[in-house]
Amino acid sequence: MLDVFVYLAVVMALAVFMIVGAFLLRTFLAGGSPKEAVGRLFAQKREPRVHVVEQYNVDNRRRLVLIRRDDVEHLIMTGGPVDVVIETGIAARAAVPQASPSGEETAATYPSHIPLRP
Fold first, then answer.
1. Which of 79, 41, 46, 37 is nearest to 60 (CA)?
2. pLDDT class of 104 with cuts at 50, 70, 90
3. Which helix (H) or strand (E) covers residue 89, if one does?
4. pTM here?
5. Which residue has the higher pLDDT, 64 or 37?
6. What share of the chain is helix, strand, coil (3-state, %, to 5)?
7. Nearest to 77 by CA among 64, 60, 59
8. What is the pLDDT of residue 3?
9. According to the UniProt record, where is the region Disordered (predicted)?
């Protein structure tokens, strides 16, 4: 029974060494240093440029999707035989202040992500 655990430990160690080796090989082939590569692994991710602002089901198959990219919105119809761009280059609407129940004004925000399929 002890042999099974020894073999399992050896296989796991080999897997870890292969992953680390592949990471180092990719780093050296890309011309970077291992320190930079590890820094990129733990760096903050950049803000995504594309957001689904709103969506509306037209019927069982088709859906209107309003997508924002770099402060420009595009209206797309998906789900038919061909996806169609209905309107492009729409200026992104600025957040409109809304009154909260306590009487204070708050800025309306758009959700960062809306799933396309419920």
1. 79
2. low
3. strand 84-91
4. 0.46
5. 64
6. 30, 30, 40
7. 64
8. 87
9. 97-118
End-to-end CA distance of the chain: 49
* pLDDT of 60 strictly over 70: yes
pLDDT of residue 118: 47
- For residue 39, give the H/E element and its range: helix 34-41
CA distance linking residue 69 with residue 52, whole number of Å: 9
Q: List the domain boundaries for the chain.
A: 2-41, 50-107
In 3D space, the residue among 111, 110, 114, 118 whose CA is nearest the CA of residue 65 turns out to be 114
Partners of 64 in the β-ladder:
56, 77
